[in-house]
Design goal:
Blueprint: H1 26-40, E1 44-47, H2 54-61, E2 66-70, H3 76-87, E3 96-99, H4 103-107, E4 115-120, H5 129-135, E5 140-151, E6 162-169, E7 173-180, E8 193-194
Parallel strand pairs: 1-2, 1-4, 2-3, 4-5, 6-8
Antiparallel strand pairs: 5-7, 6-7
């Protein structure tokens, strides 16, 4: 795997042999970050199930102001920390925080940040989308963005309180970007994107 754009473009990310680890493909990430580019500079970002860190580190590479990556696996969390230290030798590692914890347990604490963007791509078999979405509101900016990635066999209904901004799919996954309280904004319906993977 590699970081696609920004300061660390082309940097490789190791993928550990861990059950349930399924990094977002390069093509999906490229599409997502093309959608996000206008709002990403300086944003506070949460990658709730970081895995390889591909989503959160891509956001940091492209100018996010603060990125929190949560990972509970005892092997993956230290690997993420090592990647951040390697990438941030230029001195901007303070923008990235690695949290070794269960995402739902961490979100159950009193909110200590206000996120502009949440990246939500949990292990598919764990079915963690709904409990995570229910825990997010205290942590969100009023006009926050939300990225969801699911298997194509699962329904991709917009969560309550969000409006779909963009969506796409590959042969295996569906992914969508939502805007919080977007009903008050001028929006233009967009056809879904199909990506060959």
């Amino acid at each position: 795997m590699r970081i696609i754009g920004g300061r660390w473009r082309g940097s490789k990310l190791p993928v550990a042999d861990v059950p349930g680890l399924r990094p977002s493909s390069d093509r999906v990430r490229e599409t997502l970050f093309n959608w996000l580019q206008p709002m990403l500079a300086g944003a506070c970002v949460l990658d709730a199930f970081a895995g390889t860190g591909a989503l959160g580190l891509e956001a940091a590479s492209r100018g996010a102001g603060k990125v929190v990556l949560i990972e509970q696996h005892r092997m993956l969390a230290p690997m993420l920390q090592a990647q951040v230290e390697r990438l941030a030798r230029g001195g901007d590692g303070g923008r990235i925080e690695i949290v070794h914890d269960d995402a739902l347990r961490w979100l159950a604490r009193p909110a200590s940040a206000c996120f502009d963007l949440v990246l939500l791509d949990p292990p598919f078999a764990a079915d963690l989308w709904q409990p995570t979405l229910a825990a997010l509101p205290p942590w969100l900016a009023a006009d926050a963005w939300l990225y969801l990635e699911r298997p194509r066999t699962a329904a991709m209904a917009p969560p309550s309180g969000w409006q779909q901004h963009r969506r796409g799919h590959t042969r295996e996954v569906e992914f969508a970007l939502y805007r919080r309280d977007a009903a008050t904004l001028d929006t233009v319906p967009v056809e879904p994107v199909s990506i060959r993977a």
